[in-house]
């Protein structure tokens, strides 16, 4: 990590130390400068020498770095569930308990973005049952880095809103537009990119796919498709952006086949924008189908809010250990809850995104009251890992990674992985429930200043869809009530509900998606 303190401090506040790191709140890995006094954060800035953030730091980054450290709601002790009560226990007792319940058992891991690469590699060493709350893509998920987007002249974006996922990558799209790029957006909801686009269409995802697949057909009568084909053929600096949410949906294989064929015919560059997994893992859907095959589960973060009640019920017969920053929904379904270190409080490699690079950030805050998950698990399972050996398989030298801004992963291109043509499944018609992040993600609801940006969980739909469903001010979905917002910013036949709310968040609790979706591990589902 090559960023260094500046010669002239950016802050006017009194400080003792100036520390540099990379944010792991999303895949952009923006550089930051942290100013501390008496081991307490007094100020935070984006690093002006950082090539990704260029001196900026988004709301999410500020929240995850600065506010997490002082948040009074943060978990600071280990707790063990005894019957229906949680009792505080020492870290020594927690270690002994974990050894008793996990050692020589069939253990599974469920990792969210708070798990670093060390924890992932160790989990793979311990068990074949390694699950993530996103999707594993065994190919290069992007052919360009975000900062290279600004030089594209034609950009087709499908269901993409980087402001809600990989926040600072938005700036490179805005730069491209300001340089004259033609931005063409198709999405289920009106977002920042729609506002900047030359052409924008709101469509439900199944209709959008049928529309886009016409690009690959020889004959059609749609003038819009003629324009898209000519643009992709004639403008060599073309880029196709696809949302990671489509990878966590019933449309995944169809979207990938579309991307593959588009690249073969038009030689376009592409990027999958959002949280994806570049290393082998199983999905939440796989977890639900194999929940009877393991005895214990180690969870990072709050992914159990994405499970249905029947799967949570099955977990009651298993030992669940959770590493977490806050006592959230998952904590209420865990037997042992441990206060984990944030990415600022341990050496961390950011890898969960589609941009195809790893970014190393050193520990900048020494917080001994929290548990380093890797250190804890290494002691419990009496196993160790060698990151150097793991990374060498992906063409990365670990020591070079620690001193560089980023290191590109050597992954096979999309067209080499998906060689065989598979049967195209028919797309389901109907009204779709779309659940995804908005500006405030899951962790954002544990901070008053970010939660206040979006206090309440609501259902958003347009007037035509409301009439179809015969709803006015509220909608009931599988026994749960949501206040309705009628807006033209949602496509026909789409009901959008933010997924980041849950029952145990401290301010204005909402409903976790596992309560009202039949398949909560998918972002799109037909409302039946």
Automatic annotation (TrEMBL):
According to the UniProt entry, its GO molecular function terms are: 4 iron, 4 sulfur cluster binding; metal ion binding; oxidoreductase activity
4Fe-4S Mo/W bis-MGD-type domain mapped to chain residues:
16-70
Record key words, sorted:
4Fe-4S, Iron, Iron-sulfur, Metal-binding, Molybdenum, Oxidoreductase, Signal
Q: Does the keyword Ribonucleoprotein apply?
A: no
Q: Which domain of life is it from?
A: Bacteria
For this protein, the record's CDD domains field holds: Molybdopterin-Binding
Give the protein's recorded name.
Answer: NADH-dependent fumarate reductase subunit C
């Amino acid at each position: 990590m090559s960023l260094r303190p500046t010669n002239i401090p950016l802050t006017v506040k009194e400080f003792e130390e100036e520390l540099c790191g990379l944010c792991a709140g999303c895949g952009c890995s923006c550089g930051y400068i942290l100013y501390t006094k008496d081991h307490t954060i007094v100020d935070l800035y984006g690093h002006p020498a950082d090539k990704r953030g260029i001196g900026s730091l988004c709301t999410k980054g500020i929240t995850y770095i600065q506010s997490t450290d002082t948040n009074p709601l943060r978990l600071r002790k280990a707790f063990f569930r005894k019957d229906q009560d949680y009792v505080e226990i020492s870290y020594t007792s927690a270690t002994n308990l974990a050894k008793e319940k996990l050692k020589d058992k069939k253990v599974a891991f469920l990792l969210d973005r708070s798990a670093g690469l060390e924890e992932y590699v160790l989990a793979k060493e311990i068990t074949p049952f390694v699950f993530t709350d996103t999707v594993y893509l065994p190919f290069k998920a992007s052919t360009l880095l975000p900062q290279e987007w600004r030089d594209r002249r034609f950009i087709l974006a499908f269901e993409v809103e980087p402001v809600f996922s990989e926040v600072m990558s938005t700036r490179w799209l805005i730069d491209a537009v300001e340089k004259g790029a033609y931005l063409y957006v198709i999405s289920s909801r009106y977002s920042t990119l729609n506002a900047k686009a030359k052409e924008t269409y709101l469509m439900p995802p199944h209709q959008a796919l049928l529309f886009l697949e016409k690009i690959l057909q020889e004959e059609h009568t749609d003038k819009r498709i003629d324009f898209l084909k000519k643009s992709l053929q004639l403008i060599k600096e073309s880029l196709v952006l696809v949302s990671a949410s489509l990878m966590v949906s019933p449309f995944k294989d169809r979207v990938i086949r579309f991307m593959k064929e588009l690249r073969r015919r038009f030689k376009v560059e592409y990027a999958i924008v959002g949280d994806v997994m570049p290393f082998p893992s199983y999905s939440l859907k796989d977890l639900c189908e194999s929940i009877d095959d393991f005895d214990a589960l180690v969870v990072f973060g709050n992914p159990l809010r994405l499970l249905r009640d029947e799967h949570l019920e099955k977990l009651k017969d298993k030992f669940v250990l959770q590493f977490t920053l806050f006592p959230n929904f998952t904590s209420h379904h865990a037997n042992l809850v441990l206060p984990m270190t944030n990415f600022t409080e341990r050496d961390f490699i950011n890898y969960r995104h589609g941009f195809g690079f790893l970014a190393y950030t050193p520990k900048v805050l020494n917080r001994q009251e929290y548990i380093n998950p890797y250190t804890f698990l290494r002691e419990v399972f009496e196993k160790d890992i060698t990151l150097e050996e793991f990374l060498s398989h992906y063409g990365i030298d670990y020591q070079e990674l620690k001193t560089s801004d980023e290191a590109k992963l050597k992954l096979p291109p999309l067209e080499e992985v998906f060689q065989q043509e598979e049967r195209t499944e028919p797309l389901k018609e109907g009204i779709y429930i779309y659940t995804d992040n908005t500006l405030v993600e899951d962790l954002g609801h544990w901070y008053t200043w970010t939660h206040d940006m979006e206090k309440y969980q609501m259902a958003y739909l347009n007037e035509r869809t409301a009439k179809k469903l015969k709803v006015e001010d509220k909608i009931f979905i599988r026994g749960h009530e949501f206040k309705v917002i009628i807006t033209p910013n949602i496509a026909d036949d789409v009901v959008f509900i933010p997924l980041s709310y849950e029952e145990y968040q401290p301010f204005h609790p909402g409903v976790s998606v596992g309560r009202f979706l039949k398949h909560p591990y998918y972002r799109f589902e037909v409302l039946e």
